[in-house]
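Late entry, written up from scratch paper. The run itself happened at the end of the previous shift, but nothing got recorded in the book at the time, so transcribing now.
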Amino acid sequence: MPISGNLGGFIKPGFNPLGPQTDGFFSTLWSWGENNNGQLGDGTTTDRSSPVQVGALTTWSQVALGGTYTLAVTNSGELYAWGTNVLGNLGLGDETARSTPVQVGALTTWLKVTAGQYSSLAIKTDGTLWGWGANNYGKLGLGDTTTRNSPVQVGALTTWAEVASDGSHSMALKTDGTLWAFGRNNYGQLGQGNTTDYSSPVQVGALATWSKIAVGGDTSLVVKTDGTFWTWGYGTWGVLGLGNQTNYSSPVQVGALTTWAKPTGGRNHTLASKTDGTIWAVGGQNTSGQLGLSDNTHRSSPVQIGSLTTWSESSISAGQYHSLALTTGGALYAWGSNGQGRLGDGTTSNRNSPVQIGALTTWARCPAAMGFSGFTVVLSDQL
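Output as recorded:
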C-alpha cells in the first residue's frame, strides 16, 4: 500500500501532502542517539541506542533535525520544537533549552521545516517563508546578520515551495521552479559564480526547472525536473560526486544520467536515490562507513549502495556521520557512525553497510534534514 511522496516515506490513501495535514494521516515520532541537550524529546538528557517514542501524539507529519535540536510539524499545521536553544533556534522567544516538544506560537499554518546547525527555516501553507535562530552570514535570508529567537518572515513573497539549510547557507525553491540561495558563500555554495555572501535570497541562474533540493556541509545538491543531478560548493572528500575534490561556484552536472530522484547531504557525504528504487553514495567522507559501501574508503563519484531496488526514493537522509533510508515496504535501515547509539540498533558499533533497525515495517518517513546531527528522529505508522 505505501508509495513514496514528496515529503518522504509513505502516503496513505486520502493524504494530501500539499495542504494542512488534517485528512487522516497519523504517525508517531521515535528518537534515539545523542541526547545531551534533550534533542530526543523524551524529557531526559540520556542517550538512547534503541528507539523511544516522543510523547503520545499520533499526528506528526514531518520532522527536521538541527545540530542538537528538533523541529516537527503535525498534520494540523502546528509546529513544535525541543533541544538546545542557545541562539533562539527553537523559535520560542527565548534561549532556554527544552527536553520535550513545545509548540511554537499558536498558529496551525505550518507546512514544512528545515534545520541547520542552529538556524531554522519553515514554509507556511500560504507559501510564505520564515526564519529564526542563528543568522551569521545572513543564512536566514532576512537581509541582515541579526539572530532571531522567534519566527520572522523572509520578504513578502507567497510562492515558496521547498527550503533546505545547513550550518552556513540555505536554499529555497519557488513554485515556478526557480532556485534561490542565501548565506555564506566561501566555497561558492550559493551558485553565483563568486564567493560573496548574500543575506537576502538571490536566484541561482535563470532556469525554472529545479525540482528537489538539499544542502550538506557547504554543499548544494539539486535534481532537475528532467532527472539530472547538479552539485556545487565545497568539494573536499569528493562530496560533490564530480570525480575530484574541487570547489565549484556554479552548478555542475553529476554524470549524464536522467534517473535521479532525491539528494541528501550530510556534513561531508552525499547520498541520492534514483527512480529505479536504488540508492547511491554520491561521494564524500567514509571514515565511519557512512557511505554504506561495506568499507571505509572515501569516494568522489557515485557508487550504488547494495543491490536492492525497493528503496523509497523520497525517504533517505544523511546525518553528521550516519545515514538512513526506508524501503517501500516500511523497513528502516541505518549505517555509519553509531556514537551514542545514533543508528538505533541497540549497540554503539559502527556499521559500514545498511543494517535493519528492528523488524518493524511501519516506519513512515525519514527526517527532512539531519546534516549536522548525531541523533535520529523518525516517523512511524505504529500507533
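Confidence is low (pLDDT under 50) at residues 1-24.
(Scratch paper discarded after transcription.)
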